[in-house]
Amino acid sequence: MYDMQNVKRLKKIGDSAPAAWEAFKQFDAAAMADGAIPKKYKELIALAVAMTTQCAYCLEIHRKQAIAAGATETELAETVFIAAALRAGAAVTHGTHVAGVE
Question: What is the CATH number of domain 38-102?
């Protein structure tokens, strides 16, 4: 099911809902623009979020964007472990819903 060629279908979705599509594109551009948080860090954050949501498309897009923004292999590797720690931490903290429940 995952194929980067599917991203080309976004045009059809956008054509079918142009107002929402344009608003989304503007929001996305504003959120990812260089600002108080530099673009490189925003892309690394986006990459970590993509790992936790497991969006293969976002992983590929933000990996490329992070590298283009100057992210190093070391930064990419640390981002992987940040995402892993958060996913593992969520599993552990969700354990509080079942531990000790009788």
Answer: 1.20.1290.10
